[in-house]
Each structure stands twice: as structure tokens, then as C-alpha cells.
């Protein structure tokens, strides 16, 4: 909100803890980008009863700090600890989540390159069905590694901020999809068809499964939900096809994938499932605000 500053009465009510929670979160989000308003809010808080407590905490922190301390002016600068003081790329990488910053993108790239190498260097004609069978659950692993106390040591703190909750979940999910969708689709384009559906046929199912894992995660946690959704897909499609009889296993897998992914009815069903899961996720958004995900 360029050019906008918090009115005095809003600052006063915030300092007195009299603002409704949504209004307080909105103001806190504005303070991340506005140094002048942050200074005014800081001054208003110091003038309340909490100000004396904060001063005592500050004194104790300074007393326990190493000999080489930052100056008082810098310690009290309202913009020192704000995300906007960091390079923009660093802020984006932090919001994108541990999975995108860690080894997960390299693992996805390895899967894509391995599929291409298996098809062209190894002469294996059934690589595309195998890739299409695994591709819908690959983003689930990235989401599971991106959100929750197991993935982020600052999870509880981040969840309590205005940028936390469902907004952070969706940001990290979008980052995971931005990595996995292009890489796996491009790899599919380089593979022989082998009777499998088109390379883009897995996109809607992948989005539906990801949405389902987030919606279920609002009840049981992201890791458990990911394991349930991914396990259900793997048992219902590739495991069922490979355990069947008659014909080559990859041919059976390609036939099973065609039934699940090919055609307007199948894609329409996946789109409807994704829509319902997103609607449930929005209805359950408050659970992410309270940081119940594990």
C-alpha cells in the first residue's frame, strides 16, 4: 500500500492490544515494508505497561550478549529484522520452503534425467508409462518436505506471523509445482510414447492429488496426508497394473494409465476432484493459521 500510513488511533489500539486479530495481522504485514509506521508503533508500545517489561528483556539480552555487540541504535532499528531488509531473492527462497532450498529439486532433476537416459541410452521402451505413474506423487514429496515443524525449525514462529498459515502453505506448494511440473513434463516429451497417455495427462491428477494432500493435511498433518494420498495412488494405479497377468508389465501399466488419465471424462473427474479439494482447503484454512500441521 504505497503512500498509506497507519492512523494514530490504529497505532494506539494496536499498542493497547485492542485491535481485532485480522486488523492486527494486517497492520503487522504493513510494518514489514514501512519503517516510519514501525517506528511509531514501537514508540507507542514502549509507552504502555508492556514497555517496561520489554525494556527489562532488552537489558537482559544486552547483558548476556557477547562482547562484540551491535550498537543500540541498530538493535532498535525497526527495519533490522524485517524481511524487506534482506535481498529479494533470499526472501523468495525463504518463503519457498526447505524443499526448494534443499536437495529435493536435484532429486526431481535426477528422476527426469534418469528417465531420459533409461529410454535413450538403455533402450527401455516403457519409460514414459513409468514416469507418468510416478509423476503425480512427486510434488507431494516436495510439499511434505516444505511445511511443518519437521521441515522448518522456525515453523511455530512463522505460522504466527501475518505471512504464515495457508498463505505460506500455498506459496511453498506453488514453488514445488513450479520446479516439478516443467521438469517432468519436459522429460516426458523426450520419451517414446509406448502406448501411454500424452505427457501433459498427469498434470490435472498431480494438482488434484496435491490439493487432496493439503486438504487432508488440515486434519492429520502434511506428512501423514502425503503418505496416505501417495500410497493410495501407487496402490491403485502402478502396483495394480504391474501385479496383473497377461502381456508385458509396462503395456499393462500404459493401459491402466490410459483408463485413469486419458479422455475428457477422466480429466473432467480429476478437475472436479481438484476443485472440491481446494474448496475444502479454503474451508479449513483456520487450521493452518493455528499451526496444527505436523
Which helices and strands, and how do they pair?
Elements: H1 8-15, H2 21-31, H3 35-46, H4 49-64, H5 72-75, H6 88-96, H7 98-101, H8 104-120, H9 127-134, H10 138-146, H11 155-159, H12 166-189, H13 203-220, H14 222-236, H15 238-242, H16 249-261, H17 264-283, H18 285-289
Helix pairs in contact: 1-3, 8-12, 9-16, 10-12, 10-13, 10-14, 13-14, 13-17
Task: Give a quick rundown of the structure.
With 294 residues, the chain is mostly helical.
Give an overview of the whole structure.
The chain is mainly α and 294 residues long. 69% of the residues lie in helices and 0% in strands. It has 18 helices and no strands. It has helices at 8-15, 21-31, 35-46, 49-64, 72-75, 88-96, 98-101, 104-120, 127-134, 138-146, 155-159, 166-189, 203-220, 222-236, 238-242, 249-261, 264-283, 285-289. Helix 1 packs across helix 3 (35-46) and helix 10 (138-146) runs antiparallel to helix 14. The longest helix is centred in the middle third of the chain and has 24 residues, at 166-189. It starts with 7 loop residues before the first helix and ends in a 5-residue tail after the last helix. 32% of the residues are buried.
Amino acid at each position: 500500500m504505497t503512500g498509506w500510513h497507519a492512523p494514530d488511533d490504529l497505532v494506539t489500539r494496536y499498542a493497547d492490544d485492542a485491535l481485532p486479530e485480522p486488523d492486527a495481522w494486517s497492520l503487522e504485514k504493513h510494518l514489514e515494508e514501512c519503517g516510519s509506521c514501525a517506528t511509531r508503533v514501537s514508540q507507542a508500545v514502549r509507552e504502555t505497561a508492556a514497555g517496561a517489561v520489554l525494556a527489562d528483556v532488552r537489558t537482559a539480552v544486552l547483558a548476556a550478549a557477547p562482547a562484540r555487540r551491535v550498537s543500540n541504535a541498530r538493535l532498535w532499528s525497526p527495519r533490522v529484522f524485517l524481511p524487506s531488509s534482506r535481498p529479494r531473492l533470499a526472501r523468495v527462497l525463504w518463503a519457498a520452503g526447505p524443499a526448494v532450498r534443499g536437495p529435493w529439486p536435484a532429486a526431481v532433476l535426477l528422476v527426469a534425467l534418469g528417465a531420459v537416459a533409461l529410454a535413450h541410452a538403455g533402450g527401455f521402451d516403457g519409460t514414459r508409462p513409468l514416469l507418468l505413474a510416478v509423476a503425480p506423487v512427486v510434488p507431494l514429496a516436495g510439499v511434505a518436505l516444505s511445511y511443518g515443524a519437521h521441515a522448518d525449525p522456525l515453523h511455530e514462529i512463522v505460522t504466527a506471523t501475518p505471512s504464515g498459515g495457508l498463505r505460506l502453505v500455498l506459496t511453498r506448494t506453488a514453488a514445488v509445482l513450479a520446479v516439478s511440473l516443467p521438469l517432468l513434463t519436459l522429460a516426458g516429451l523426450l520419451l517414446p510414447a509406448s502406448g501411454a497417455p500424452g505427457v501433459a495427462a498427469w498434470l490435472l491428477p498431480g494438482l488434484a492429488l496435491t490439493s487432496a494432500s493439503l486438504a487432508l493435511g488440515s486434519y492429520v498433518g502434511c506428512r501423514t496426508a502425503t503418505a496416505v494420498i501417495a500410497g493410495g495412488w501407487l496402490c491403485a494405479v502402478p502396483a495394480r497394473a504391474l501385479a496383473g497377468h497377461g502381456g508385458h508389465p509396462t503395456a499393462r501399466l500404459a493401459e491402466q494409465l490410459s483408463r485413469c488419465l486419458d479422455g475428457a471424462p477422466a480429466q473432467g473427474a480429476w478437475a472436479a476432484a481438484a476443485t472440491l479439494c481446494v474448496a475444502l482447503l479454503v474451508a479449513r484454512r483456520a487450521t493452518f493459521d493455528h499451526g496444527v500441521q505436523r
